[in-house]
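Practice problem: predict the structure.
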Amino acid sequence: MPFIESEDRYQIHLLPNTLDDFVDEENPVRVIDAYVDILTLEELGFQVYSGSKAGQKPYRREELLKLYLYCYMNGIRSSRKMENETKRNMELMWLIGKLQPDHGTLSAFMKSNQTAIKKLFKEFTLMLKGFGLIDGQLVAIDGTKLKANCSKKKHFNDNIISKKLEQIDEKIDAYLRDFLTEDNRLKKKEITEKIAVYQERMHELQVMKQELKDTGESQICVTDPDAKSMKNNGKHEVCFNVQTAVDSKYKLIVDCDTVNDVNDQGQLSNMAKKTKQVFQGQKTTILADTAVRLNSRHRLY
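Answer:
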């Protein structure tokens, strides 16, 4: 045989492999399993079900949390992609016992337990401190821009809205002129329908313009209301500004925050206070680059 032969996929085994055989002892997925098993989710604020009520049986919250932690650790954030992974990922099959919750269930779990998950991450950080994996002697703070799920066509400011209103107004005027000179009845009906579409779009833009005026905001994103246009890698994109504090001992994250400030100015105070909440009563040296400036209205202790 000149080649290494693969196993016949239809071969029946007398002693089939267990799921545990596919996950080695040093696999990080075992850490997730052990960590979640020691948690009391109800005390952390998770919405927990007894499973004794009539109707469709719920999934255990522990299983869904394990799935989320595994997927996020591996860069899988879409609930639909998570659903697909449960059907093909052997590590995930081992972790949650071949359960296959649909994307609606996964999305609802995250939506219902956002506050509890934030508290869980806080507790995890304190656990790292207890194990001596972070010591708070030296902490570095910096920000990065993460692109939002919003195209430039869904981002508006007062200038963009004014230009689009002018363009639509010109389009409507042109169609009105065509309508007055057109004798064909079907063509007139087609022109009328197009004018109605532009008028509806004009109304939507006018509502956005008024909303910006009422809220005092300078821009608005249709799909991601909290995101803003920021300079990212030399070009303007609709992003979130993620601030992170990292401990120098093993380069582990102490805390993070997501803001929509277009730059890092004034974020040093915010992140330093979050860091001091973890390392209370001890002296901590905090580093930041020149982009993260201290807001003079705050003091650090």
